[in-house]
Every structure is written in C-alpha cells, then in structure tokens.
Amino acid sequence: MLKYLLQKEFLQIRRNAFLPRLIILFPIVMMSVIPWVMNQEVKNIKVCVVDNDRSTVSQQLVHRIEASNYFIFTGQQPTYSAALHAIETSKSDIALVIPPNYSKGQAQVLIAANAVNGTKGSIGASYLAQIIQADKLTSRQVDISSDAGSNSSTHTLYNPHQDYKVFMIPALFAILMMLMCGFLPTLNIVGEKEAGTIEQINVTPVPKWAFILAKLIPYWLIALFIITACLLLSWAIYGITCQGPLALVYLLAMLLALFFSSLGLIISNYSETMQQAIFVMWFFVVCLMLLSGLFTPTRSMPGWAYLTTYVNPMHYFIDAIRTVFVRGGGFTSIAHQVLALTLIGLTMATWAVASYRKNN
Amino acid sequence: MNAIEVNHVSKSYGKVQALNDVSFTVSPGEVFGLIGPDGAGKTSMFRILCSLLLPDEGTASVDGFDVVREMKQARRRVGYMPGKFSLYQDLTVEENLQFFATLFGTTIEAGYDSIRAIYSQIERFRHRRAGALSGGMKQKLALSCALVHQPRVLFLDEPTTGVDPVSRKELWEMLGTLRERGITIVASTPYLDEVRRCDRVAFLQEGKVQGIDTPELILERFAAVFNPPGLEPSATQSQATEKVIEVSHLVKAFGTFRAVDDISFEVRRGEIFGFLGANGAGKTTAMHMLTGLNQPTSGTGKVAGFDIRTEYEQIKHHIGYMSQRFSLYEDLTVAENIRLFAGIYGMKDSDIKAKTDNVLRQLKFEGHKDALVRSLPLGWKQKLAFSVSIFHDPAIVFLDEPTGGVDPATRRQFWELISDAAARGITVFVTTHYMDEAEYCDRISIMVDGQIRAIGTPDELKHQFQQPDMDHVFTFLARQATRSSD
C-alpha cells in the first residue's frame, strides 16, 4: 500500500511546475552565495586619526593603519571633537587619538569606537589595539624580555585561518534542511485539506502511519539530495571538505530531516489553511534557528534561554555537524547529540502520526 | 437600445476554443438563459460581458457601453454573481455587504431599497460570519452584494448549483421581482425548471450558439441533450432483505446544535437509497458518521455489519465514497488516480491493470487514460470519481451530491452508472438536489431540521403527502423547516 502512496507523492512533486526546480536551485544558490556573505569578520572599518604627537613614530603608526586590510583610513582630524563629529556623521567608525608624548613611549593612545553595532565596535577597537601593540614592539624595540611574562601565545585549533566559511557552511546545511524539509511538508497535508482530497483518503482503510510515512519519505530523499549537493558544492567552490566520516554527516542530516518533516506535518495536521500553517511554521523556524547557536554561542545566552537548547534539535545538529565537519570528530564525540536528535525526531514522528485524524 | 449586444465574439485558451463566433442580443428587462453542457463556454461568456476577460475577436456591449473600450462605465452597470460564492468567509454578513458597497462608491443605506426584499431575509444574521451561513443564505447575501450598487444588468453564473430545491425556488422568485424593476438578467443553469423560467435562452455547445429561442422551443429542439429519456426502473428491483445499513437514534451535536437529531433507518443490500434534505438539514453530517469520518454523539449504527462507533476503520474496507467536493487528485492522470485508490484498498497490480482497462472502456475514456484529471470537463470528472469509488467492489457506495452542476445528459449517464452498480449488488446511498434523480431511487428519506420526516418509495411518499411529484413532496416538507439557519 505504501508503494502506491509513495508513487502518488513523487508524481505530485514531479508534476508540480515549480517544486523540482526549487529543490535543485535552492541548495546551489544558497551554497554559492551565502558563505561569502554570512561572515562575522569585521572588515573595512573607517578610522580617523587625531595626531597630537606629529612625530615620525606617530606617522609610522598611521601608515600601518592605512596598510591594514581591516581599516579604511578616512584622514586626519584636527581635534578630538572634530573626530567625534566624524563618527556622528558616519564618516568614521573609530577615532584614534595619539597623545603628544606618544613617541616618548609614555602616554596612552585613546581609541573611541562607535559601538552601535557592538561587534563591529569592539572587534575594530581590539584590532586597532593589536596594531598599536605591534607598532610599539617593532618600532621602538621595547625591551622584549621585560614584557615576556605577559606574552601569551594563541593556537587556533581546527580552523587555523579562522575562516568563517568553514564555520558557516555546516550551519548552512542546517538552514537548507530546515527550509526544504520543514516548509514543503507543512504545505502538503493542508494543501490536501484545501483541495478536498484528504476526505477521500480518510474514508479509505489506509493506515495512518502509512499515509504519514508516504508523506515523510520523499522529504528524506530530498534531504539526501540536498546534503550531497551541499557537500559537493562546498568542495568545488570553497575547497572545504568534511574532516570527519561522511556517514556521520548523512546520519545527522537524516535525523534533522526527520525532525523538520515531522514538525511540518504536525503543523499541517492542526492547520485549516495554508496561510495559517506557513505562519506557524515560520514562527517555529525563526525561534529554532536563533536559539540554536547558529550565529551566537549558546553559552552566552541567559540561563532560561540556554535551557531551551536542550530540546532544540537545531542546536544539537549544529553542534554535532561542526564537530564532524570542521573538527573531524568521530561517532563518540557526537553520540550525545545523535541520541538527542533521535529521541526528538522519533517523538515528533509519533506525534505527526497521532495528530493526523481520520475521524472526528 | 438593447441591454446586451454580443457580436461575433470568439475566445480561445491556447488550443481550446471556448467561444466561437457568438452573437446574441438581450432586451432591457429580459430574463435570458445561457444554457449548455459543461465546457460549452458559458463562464467565458459571462466573464467577457463583465469585462473580466478580453475577447479575441468581436465586440460586446452592456447597457450601451463597450466592455473593452468603455470598461469603467460598463462595470458600474453590471452585477455579477460567479458560480462559486465570492463572499469573504471571515467577514460578517454586514461587513461583506459594506465592502461591496464601498467598492462601487456607494453605501448600504443608499442601495438599501434595491436589496430590501432579499437582504431583509438575512438581516437578522448580519453579525454572523459569512462562512457560517448555510448555502441558501450565502446565496441571498451574494445576490445582495451583487445588487447593492443598483446595477442595470445582473449576471448569474450557475447561481443554484448545490442549492436545495426550496432555496432555488426562492432565488427565482427574487429574480422575478428584480425583473419587474426592469433589471436585465442573464443566468446560466443546469436545471430545466429554471430554464423554463427564462424569457429566452441561448443554447451554447462547444463554444457555438446552437439556437436562441423561447425555452420551450429550445428544450424541444435539443431534447436529446436536455431531456434524455428517463431511466428504465431497474428490472432487478432488490428483493434481498439483508440489511447493510442499520441506524438507530443517531445524534450528532455540535455544542447545543443538534445537526443530526435522532435518526433511525435501514437500507437493504442492492438498494438505491436517496437521502434527501435541504441545505443544512444534516445530510452530510449523517453521511460522515456512516463513513467513519465523524463519531456520533449518541445512538448506534451498523454499516456492512460493523459498528460505526468502534469499528469505523473496518467499515472503510467495505465502502466507497464520493464527496461533494471533487475528490480525485487533479495533478495525477486518470490511470494514476485509479491505481492509487485501488492500491490503497489492497488490490493487486495485475488486477488493477486489467480492471482499469475495463472501466475506462465502459466510460469510453480509453483515449484519456493518461490525461491529467485537471484537464477533464466536470461531468467526466464526476463519472470518473464514481468509477474510482466503486473500483474495489465495495458493499456500499456513499455519494454526496455527485451530480451538482452537471448538465442533464451527463447526469443521465451518471445515473446509468449508478444503476449498473446497483445491479451488481452494490448498495447506493446518494444525496441529491435534483428531484428527477430522486425518482430513480428505490427508496427515499427526507431530512428536515436534522430529523427524518419521511421515508419510503417515491410512489409511497407522493401518495402519503398527496403531491403530484417528488419536487412537490420535497418542497412541502422542507418548507416546514424551523431551523433559524435556513
């Protein structure tokens, strides 16, 4: 019986003028465009300088800033208030004030950063501080030995170039799975409700699980296709490949697909119209995504918000896929996440079957 | 000056020619019928006259204004009631009317006189959502909305499809009063009694005008289409006494509203059982309980030997069902739909194949095996849906208004299929608003206000209520309804 239902679902997807194209184009567009854009590196920070020292040393510092990739030098300002004005009018993001005795090594420089965009402000300021530090070390041959104690060394593990693409591409997998395996099923059952065909199905002896399974399986296959396309594209375009076992990536993707396709069907079962279904799904998707640690580290959330990550499959998925994809972790390192995803997925699938009512 | 002039209008959609050189005129104050089988081009004609569609060739004018060049003026003079109600289901009765009044730059107060006769009947429900109205009331509201800007010409595209005989009569009485006020009316309808109420009718077939004349002459000339010879009463009148449906004291309540209020009846194997009632009388709810879509609030029932309260999933193995709304998958082909439903009922691939060919041959559909269901005309779809619903040889088939909006010739073919099925021993449980179809049933029940008021053979009922035909019997009983919803 499942065979006939599955056949019907695939025929319907194929007959749809729009869906097959969407399924193919969507991962390609997302993978080709978004990794370039979704990047938390702060670049092109506009800096103006108030140089009260006017020495060769201070000139050298200004040249260093000009030469940096991270900064755009917007020119000298005569006074601090003029520099602030430049910030207020968005001509500059950061003002650097070099004190009169800078070349003598005593006075401190002042960095005033526009922190309306907090990340840009703080990261920009710390970049600038690094440049100043480096400048001090090289240009004035400060006695290194005296400073040695406070020197720290940093090793960046697993992603030595701190390339955001490596960090973001696994997250993109998650977003794609969410959009394709979440929204398409959401529209499915409610679509049959609107067309009236569901009533015809409900008077047949078709078992609930068979009907729901026939709805889920096509989306799992779509998920398989998407994850394969994503892996290939990330290798072809960015030369980024999976560090851990590929099988684990697929396992994780399937588990996430199970969750999202079930969630979609549950919402579809409870909704009367497509409009209602899509809005409810949208709400869940945004919440799941923002609370997942996709963009922000979950540990820095307030405690009550952090608690939600225990039931957020996106959180487990992103954690696990980054472990496997970026760090090359094996099954043991993600066992906990796999277990959690399986439990959540199965619960949702059961709910999806239970919430489909053939009878009122 | 004629109220409507249509000169050599043609319209095609891709390869399909919907209208082919159509010309006719309608005088002011006339009630003009546009009749013809499904897909004859009636709706395209309406849409052109309402300036919703541009003709490929030819011209048309309404109240002296060309529908293409003087669209704005023409639209002000036109009221249009499309086949499917164009009401906003989430707005109340009053809000709907207010909205349509605003669209035409007028107010309910200004247009009140022109709609008083109709609107006053539903005005006490003005704070109810349009979606919660019964079919008859929706129709009155839709008509009020079409009339609120005092149009000179009113277009009604199958206004009475899916509406019970009593509400239909009321609608045509309302149209009569509009006519007296000089409003020109163009209506399409599949009902012959409504055709007869027109002053003149144009018979369209395959996009061409076959004839324009008085209803009597047209119906006589094209009797083959409109008045096919009645079905022979089924020779194999079911003599079996085995009961396939037994219902006693069945109740379905939604809150305090008893949609089905204590009904009891029996249906024997091989019978064609007509389940009649006005819109909102509770027919569909009762049918949903029998087919396991709904649980009864109280009472018991057995269908094919299974209890409707506990064994509804077993019942589903033994029944076929065809709902009011068209219920096949439009994006699958004819053969794929058959295969899907046969597969769900557990038939084997080889059986499905052999039987599909048989059924398609019987329907004369062989050439359309791989056509998408979407592309078939309504009457064909309905015949196909019926064949699919009995494909697995169920004990009983439930048909909920299977012939709504279908033309007489196709309905006749449909009923031939029903008799064939009954002759094969399939019990047929059917609801309909066509009283000529009621005459074909072996036994009939008539529901009013959630209760069965009459049950028996058509002859017994006519005799019991001293009425000449089923139409009168139905009207007689349905007029006794006291439910406020209708």
Q: Order of strands across the biggest sheet of chain B?
A: 6-7-8-3-9-10
Output mean pLDDT of chain A.
85
Main β-sheet of chain B: number of strands, strand sense, barrel status?
6 strands, mixed
Low-confidence stretches of chain A: 141-151
Q: Kindly report the name of the CATH homologous superfamily of the largest domain in chain B.
A: P-loop containing nucleotide triphosphate hydrolases
End-to-end span of chain A in angstroms? 24 Å
Mean pLDDT of chain B: 87
Report Rg of chain A.
27 Å
Summed up, the domain count of chain A is 2
- Tell me the count of domains of chain B: 2
Model description:
The complex is a heterodimer of chains A (360) and B (486). With 360 residues, chain A is of the alpha/beta class. Chain A has two domains: 2-38 and 160-355, no CATH class; 45-150, abc type-2 transporter like domain (abc type-2 transporter like fold), CATH 3.40.1710. Helices cover 66% and strands 6% of the residues of chain A. Chain A contains 14 helices and four strands. Chain A has a four-stranded mixed beta sheet with strand order 2-1-3-4, sandwiched between helices. In chain A, strand 1, helix 3 and strand 2 form a beta-alpha-beta unit. Chain B has two domains: 4-226, P-loop containing nucleotide triphosphate hydrolases (Rossmann fold), CATH 3.40.50.300; 243-318 and 394-478, P-loop containing nucleotide triphosphate hydrolases (Rossmann fold). In chain B, 35% of the residues lie in helices and 26% in strands. The chains are: A alpha/beta (360), B alpha/beta (486). The interface between A and B is medium-sized, with 24 and 32 residues.
Supply the key terms.
heterodimer, A: 360 residues, alpha/beta, abc type-2 transporter like fold, 2 domains, four-stranded mixed beta sheet, 14 helices, elongated, B: 486 residues, Rossmann fold, six-stranded mixed beta sheet
